[in-house]
Amino acid sequence: MKNALYALVELIARVHDKLESLNDSYEYNFNDYQLHFIVIGILGMLLTFMLIPLVKWLVKRKKVLTITWIYVFTVLIVITFAIEIGQGFTHTGTMDFSDIVFGIMGFIIFFAIYAVIRGVILLLTKMIFHRNENDD
Hints:
Radius of gyration: 22 Å
Low-confidence stretches: none
Number of strands: 0
Number of helices: 4
Oligomer: single chain
Distance between the termini: 52 Å
Largest sheet: none
Helix content: over 70%
Structural class: mainly alpha
């Protein structure tokens, strides 16, 4: 997980540098705010267009738990980065990338435990009600 996040940060830095160099080599000369506005706006729309079919597919299969996990995971990534950045600015703690990794792993493990317990309960419920239907 840590390596994947580092790779993602490195990729983002490379793309950022490439976009800045493209901006400098043309006569547009967008400032940093304008570049963020354009790039994040386009990225957000591309993600939207990519996720619509996935979410529709998951909804058709009644995979509400999966949709919830994707949403919560995304929000937690933002929250954990914000906490660490806040600690760095306010000096109320150590800004440590490992804190982000452990926090996200905590969510993944707790969610997996919840999903297993939920699955067992649903399976038992289905078995009990299916047996009662056959008794009639």
